[in-house]
C-alpha cells in the first residue's frame, strides 16, 4: 500500500501469521518525495508513476517498478518547464499499453500542456489536440485509457465521448484535423552565420488513399497531401509556411525539397501535415554553407 502526502510517501505491506491473522507494517521505503497532484498517480504494467513534490521531489516525475524504490524519470529541462506552469495541482496522469509500448501520460489542463513518457524507449514526447478555430494546440483530449477486446479506449477531456486509437485514421473523431509535427534541434555552426541552401526529407510519398481530385469544385484534402515547412532564425519567431507535397497515390518517387531558406546563426526547421494521409519522416538532410566563420 503506497500512501502519498504532499512532502513524502510511505509504503506498507500485508503480512499474515497463524495466530494473529492479517496485519500491515511499514516497509521503511518511504522518503521525502511527496505528490504534487493527486490525480497524477497512475499504475500500468507494474509501473507506478506520479508528479513529485516536497523536499526531494522538486516537481520532478517519479516511477517505481514492481514496488522498488522510485527513480526520477523526468529530465532537468522538463523539471524546469513544469516549474513555470501556472497550476500543477490540476495535473492528471494515466497509463496504457499500445503497439508494444508502455506510456505514462501527464496533462496540465490549465496550461494546455501534455507530456508522455515511453517506458519502452526511456524517452519523453509532447502530445496535443489542435484547435482549428483558434489555431492553437490544446491539452491532449484523450484521458484515462481502458483496454477491451485488444483495443484501447479513452474518455475525452472536453466532450462526453468515448474514443479509441486508430493508426489508420488521420482526423479526430469529430472531423477535426490531426496535426503531425516534427521540429529539428538548432542548426548551429560555431556561431557563424549559415546559409541554408536545401532541406530534404524522406517521407511517405505516394501512400495516400484519396483518389478523388476534387470535391464541390475544390481540391480534395489528401489527394496531393501537403507538407508544411517553416523555419526560425532565432528559435522563437517563425517564417510563413512553405509547401511541398508527397505526391498522388502511387507516385512513390515524389521528393519533398525546399530551397533557399535564408541565412542565420541559429536555425530551427519545423515540418507538419494536417492532410488525411500517412505521414512519417524516415530521414532528413540539410545542405548549407558557413559564412564568415567565427
Any overview of this molecule?
The chain is mainly beta and about 290 residues long. Helix content is about 5%, strand content about 45%. The protein has 1 helix and 26 strands. The strands form 8 sheets. Strands 4, 5, 6, 7 and 8 form a 5-stranded antiparallel sheet that branches. Strands 9-10-11-12 form a 4-stranded antiparallel sheet, with no helix packed on it. Strand 20 and strand 21 form a beta hairpin. It starts with a strand and ends with a strand. The model has no long low-confidence stretch (mean pLDDT about 90).
Mass-distribution shape: globular
Strand content: over 45%
Oligomer: single chain
Largest sheet: 5 strands, antiparallel
Q: What is the radius of gyration? A: 24 Å
Low-confidence stretches: none
Q: Mean pLDDT, rounded to whole units?
A: 88
The overall strand count is: 26
Distance between the first and last residues' Cα: 59 Å
Number of helices: 1
Structural class: mainly beta
Order of helices and strands: EEEEEEEEHEEEEEEEEEEEEEEEEEE
What share of residues is helical? under 10%
List the helices and strands and how they pair.
Blueprint: E1 2-4, E2 9-17, E3 21-26, E4 34-35, E5 42-44, E6 47-53, E7 61-65, E8 71-72, H1 76-83, E9 92-98, E10 101-108, E11 113-118, E12 123-127, E13 129-131, E14 136-138, E15 142-148, E16 151-156, E17 163-164, E18 180-183, E19 194-203, E20 214-215, E21 218-219, E22 226-232, E23 242-245, E24 256-264, E25 268-273, E26 281-290
Antiparallel strand pairs: 1-2, 2-3, 4-6, 5-6, 6-7, 7-8, 9-10, 10-11, 11-12, 13-14, 15-16, 16-17, 18-25, 19-24, 19-26, 20-21, 22-23, 22-25
